[in-house]
């Protein structure tokens, strides 16, 4: 059996959203970090063409296998480099869908990393980067799994950003949030950001306490819109806010997962257990964001 690689959860430490443009897209500004938990992906080299099998807790929520972003990424790379070999992907879905944790995008990025290694391509080979961009908006930032500042419509990536390790708890309250619906609610309520964008990579502090203070001054501008679409997001937020030792709480992406930061992983693990005991139907994980 092939050795699996991790497709880590992607977390938006903040997400600033501008008004909708004429083409329907929104300008954004976001700092993305990655967890030490995620989906697992294996690859078994084979004949020409690609296939996929999906298992795991959230396999049923991952959609039809033939529409999986892993296959889209692999086939996109194949169109650019016809000489690469085919095979079967084995995907274990540990991350919930519709949670704002970038599971599908991270899976696709992991597939591209695997194919690059299998075919002796550099991870930053132009065809790999092009395939990532064409597969989905968040796939490129997931290729290396390093914290970065994202701007434009999500297509402009900074160089990696040095951030402190952040013990955290991720909570998904068992209800997905549709990204199009959240953005639609954002537009309909005219929740557009009033302050200008402009955070630069060099503005992001590396020292832990200063970094936390910096994060607290930011926001996720889609939060209230997500609450309208999936009220369980607000409930998860309220549950985490009941803990005195929480350093910061925020929704990731367009929801519906919420994360809280703690001073230590021991505190995060204790809080994760407390939330799981109270809400056994929720998906709750202690992790470290980097």
Short description:
It is built from 9 helices and 10 strands. It is α+β, with helices and mostly antiparallel strands and 290 residues long.
Give the CA-based shape.
globular
The helical percent reads 25-40%
Order of helices and strands: EEEHEHHHEEEHHHHEEHE
User: Per CATH, which architecture of the largest domain?
Assistant: 2-Layer Sandwich
Major sheet details = 6 strands, mixed
CATH class of the largest domain, please?
A: Alpha Beta
Total count of helical runs of at least 4 residues? 9
Number of domains in the coordinates? Answer: 2
Which structural class should the secondary elements be placed in? alpha+beta
Oligomer: single chain
CATH domain fold name of the largest domain? Ribosomal Protein S5, domain 2
Provide the β-strand percentage band: 25-35%
pLDDT averaged over residues: 95
Span of the ends, CA to CA: 29 Å
Count every beta strand, where a strand is a DSSP E run of 2 or more residues. 10
Radius of gyration: 19 Å
Note poorly predicted spans. Answer: none
What brief labels describe this structure?
single chain; 290 residues; Ribosomal Protein S5, domain 2; Alpha-Beta Plaits; 10 strands; globular
């Amino acid at each position: 059996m092939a050795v699996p690689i991790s497709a880590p959860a992607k977390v938006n430490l903040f997400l600033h959203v501008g008004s909708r443009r004429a083409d329907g897209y929104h300008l954004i500004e976001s700092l993305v970090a990655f967890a030490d938990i995620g989906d697992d992906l294996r690859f078994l080299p084979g004949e020409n063409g690609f296939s996929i099998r999906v298992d795991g807790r959230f396999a049923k929520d991952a959609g039809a296998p033939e529409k999986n972003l892993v296959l889209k990424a692999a086939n996109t790379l194949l169109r650019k480099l016809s000489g690469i070999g085919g095979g079967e992907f084995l995907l274990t879905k540990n991350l919930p869908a519709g949670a704002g944790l970038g599971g599908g995008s991270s899976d696709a990025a992991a597939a591209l990393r695997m194919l690059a290694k299998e075919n002796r391509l550099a991870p930053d080979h132009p065809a790999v980067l092009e395939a990532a961009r064409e597969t989905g908006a968040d796939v490129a930032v997931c290729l290396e799994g390093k914290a970065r500042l994202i701007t434009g419509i999500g297509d402009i990536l900074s160089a990696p950003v040095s951030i402190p390790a952040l013990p955290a708890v991720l909570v998904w309250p068992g209800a997905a949030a549709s990204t199009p619906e959240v953005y639609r609610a954002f537009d309909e309520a005219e929740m557009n950001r009033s302050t200008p964008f402009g955070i630069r990579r060099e503005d992001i502090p590396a020292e832990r306490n200063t970094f936390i203070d910096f994060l607290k001054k930011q926001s996720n501008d889609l939060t209230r819109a997500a609450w309208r679409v999936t009220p369980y997001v607000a409930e998860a937020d309220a549950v985490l806010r009941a803990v005195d030792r929480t350093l910061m709480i925020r929704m990731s992406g367009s929801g519906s997962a919420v994360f809280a930061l703690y001073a230590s992983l021991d505190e995060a693990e204790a809080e994760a257990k407390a939330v799981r005991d109270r809400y056994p139907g929720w998906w709750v994980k202690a992790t470290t964001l980097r």
